[in-house]
Design a protein that fits this description.
The protein is built from no helices and 36 strands. By secondary structure, the protein is mainly β. Among the domains are: about 140 residues, Immunoglobulin-like; about 80 residues, Immunoglobulin-like, CATH 2.60.40. The strands form eight sheets. Strands 7-5-2-3-23-24-21-27-28 form a nine-stranded antiparallel β-sheet, with no helix packed on it. It has a five-stranded antiparallel β-sheet with strand order 13-14-11-16-17, with no helix packed on it. It is globular and about 80 Å long.
Amino acid sequence: SNTVACSYSTAAVENFSIPNAVSGQFYMLMVTNFANLPGQISINQIQGTGAIDCTGMNFTAFLDSNSNGMRDLGEVNFPLGEFHYTKNGGTLHNITSPSGSYGIYDINGSNVYDVSFTVDPSYASNYAVSPSSFMGLSVVPGSGLTEYYFPVSALQNYNDVGVAIIPNQQPRPGLQYTNTIKYTNYGNQTVSGSLSFTHDPLVSISSVSQAGTTPNAAGFSYNYTSLLPFESREIQVTMLVPPIPTVSLGWLLTNTASVASVSGDTVLENNTASSSQIIIGSYDPNDKMESHGGHIAINDFGAGDYLYYTIRFENTGTASAQDVRVYDVLDNSLEPTSVRMVDASHDFTLDRLDNQLTWRFDNINLPFSSSDPAGAKGFVTFKVKPKPGYAVGTVIPNTASIFFDLNPAIVTNTFYTEFVTNLGNESFTANELMIYPNPAGDLVNVSLNGGIIKAIVIYDMLGKKVFDRKAGAASETVDLSGVSPGIYLVEVTDAENQKVIKKLSVK
């Protein structure tokens, strides 16, 4: 992706040229409205022997307030659903677009598309879509962009406010870190209500971006008003992690938010959110995490619960990134049809092909970190359910790949989530588990007093598994010669499938 032309002027009309334009080649034109006022863009060719072809189809779902099947002035786009399409009967693409609109560009008139729109299952009973599909569509080369609309009519009034916590960065000893609280009106009525935030007892709040909050010993509360249908608002909470030895690397910090509406709520599952983050020593700007912190008590996790993944990226190059793409292949233990977006840092589209997820940030123009440290960062947060059949000991891995323009992929850490019997209530205590020497060199001994070691797993501070061995004795010797110096977490499982985690320093 190279810039072939650039023009900047305060005039209403600008001219640019594409030297040595190639027939059949696609060129992307980005127009920025610095005035922040409504306007219309027209593109006119004034020279050249070729013809500009912007052929394609644009699909928009909108809330049809008067149920007349037509897009009228003031009717807003509908974001609570997915577009689905096949090309020539091929692979089914499932598109999530927070704008409620999605475009397909093609100059081949022989390709045939079937396109449909469905409302998210949580809200499907409240809406009707008619027409819900367009079958056998083809483009006419040179005809420009053809618009297709999916009118969505409300069958009943309802209220639903949801909340999410976005972990903006991992906590480190003695430093500040930020969580973003995002609350959204998923209903079709304007609502008011209250929000509360509870921070981990080990941290203290340094600042809150929202004026008018009421502090308390555990965090703060806030009364919000006039939240419009489909509107989201955010609150940034910056917290200070105390230094070592008050905290230790590998400890979990858990923050919780809840939201309520004075008018009631139809979907209670999204009224509370929490995020558990591991205290780390080193910093990786491109990483992946899950909000439960790596371990889930199986009795506290039901059929309606989700795993919440956040993929963070940062442009550490020497030039702005025009496009960013994030790619994630879900493990077979996750149900791909349950994927739902929670939040993202920039405008995006999500294309799901079965268990393959691709987020596209086209024309993001992400600055590089040395020129704009804050602006160089981005993220996606999504939720997904595990398939039925998970049990104590089930481990779900997840890794993502991040592409900046045409550069090779940056592969994140693999984050492991394991279902366990209990959290912090093991059948054997940390005192019964001995790891020595600690700090360790090439070899370390793991011994369980009065028990049998079933398995030993060692993770680095980003959640990456660096050692995994099945065992069957009271004592095991682990070879660390291939492990880099640093701080690690050693997870030991006994014959009763109970676990204890201890910190290990490798020198």
